[in-house]
Task: structure prediction
Amino acid sequence: MAGTVRLTVDQAIVRWLMAQYIEIDGAEVRICGGGFGIFGHGNVPCLGEALFPVQDELPLYRGQNEQSMGFAAAAYAKYHLRRRFMFCTASAGPGTANLLTSAALAHANRLPMLMLCGDTFLTRLPDPVLQQLEHFGDPTLGVNDAFRAVTRYWDRITHPAQIIQSLPAALAVMLDPAECGPAFIGLPQDVQGWAYDYPNEMFERRVHRIRRQAPDMAEVADAAAVLKGAERPVIIAGGGVQYSGAVPELTAFAEAHNIPVIETIAGRANLRADHPLNIGPVGVTGSDSANTIAAEADVILAVGTRLQDFTTGSWTAFAKDAALVTVNAGRHDAGKHRALPLVGDAKLGIDALGRALGEHSAPCDWAAHARAQRAEWDAYVAGNVTPGNRPNSYAQAIGVVNALCDPRDRVVAAAGGLPAEVTANWRTLDIGTVDVEFGFSCMGYEIAGGWGARIAQAEVEPDQDTIVFCGDGSYLLMNSDIYSSVLTQKKMIVLVLDNGGFAVINKLQNNTGNESFNNLIADCPTVPEPFAVDFEAHARAMGADAVTVANPAELGEAFTRAKAMDKTCVIVMKVDPYEGWTTQGHTWWEVGTAEVSDSDKVRAAHEDWEASRSKQRQGV
Result:
């Protein structure tokens, strides 16, 4: 296709995005599923003009808050296993700055997201302009430069021809298994409207595929040798197993070699709960079963995980002399903590490792011991989620929903106490159905992420539900996408579990010897007369169906009704801020404690915390 076409920069960006496809399960679909946008003076005149004619093919979802738009985009990409993404567009200044937190979330979770944001004028003729930050010694420095720290790809377009190189480079990063993360492209307001004669070849339809890096066979041989010498091996399955599409290979590998599997938070739905080799979630928010096996293992095979501190118990979850073998597409993640790395795609790496192991199998008594530990944990969870002679709890709400939801319904949670409670108590009913955002542990992701997940889910599984677990603190921080879901007819079921403040941090505050202070509303010295928020009325005001329930039995009835509805439903229940927490299954977690204090309790907590440091594996 010879010749050129004269387009503005923004028109060319939109046309190029529409020409990029990816092959998923034999079908070719557009990589970019659309965008989330809030228009302002920095993006509406030119980018709005470019998006208007293609609104049916490249839908633009109107956001209520730029940060929540980014959360929704991250959840969309996570649902699609990083094979599709959404763009976010914001105006120059505070609108763009609001995306910083969500960019950091996408960066920490290795998720693709494209940000197309307004910037100050390249010519500088009208400077200083509305919302411009002036740096007296560097006129090129602005708000958009802050994104360099939280993106995998960053560029500022200063000439129309630059996007010919910049757009493919940004997409290459977003589709790369090892480098995947958010991409930021700053668009000065004048440059957006400048025209250029772009080559027609730039807009030809192109089909992309995710690269699968084959493992080095010497590394495979080294890893196999270590596993063959193991008496008590265990597999840690992370979120990268799902992104690679390696769940069948991991399951077959574990079964063929009789190796117990424990899951990270991101890998929470790699195996169904009833699989005999699924020994449970590991780490600070894990299970007694998984943490017992992790501590006793002599070889740990970590697949597709970045080994975050909540997985490793701040590196106390494993024996100091245990060998660590990693399978990871990212060299950085594969080489952590004296690990023997096997750098490569999880699917290919596990398959190659399986062939190298041949018919080798771990001792039967080891797997039997692991299953016995899991049975004990299952019994604890069964009691923990059952309503009884104790106050309402997160665990009880989780148990009610778990018993009534469809196996393919998607569960979303983030930050606060619910990630721990969902991770520990949720029994996975089907593969890839749990999204607990704990890579950045970001309050406010829950409802916004639920909206983004539902947009993605509706493209593939329209008859299933997206279920959001949200505390009152996260709800108050960011709830406007209840309105977004109503406007766009993307139904969610949102459970607001109200414990009167930031109860899990209050628990940490107490556990470190401190008195309750400024976390629960009742303990805020600047609040003379605490009062309860009417979450039901608030949700109704945004167009959702809403109900307040008194106990888990009523919660079950309300959830059943919500399942039958075709609009977003919010169910509110008070839970106790002190009782009802899952008390078992936790490893040590390193937090900063006060070495000097007038409080005997604080000093005692510090000494207790430091005493556990002797178990900590030292990294190099």
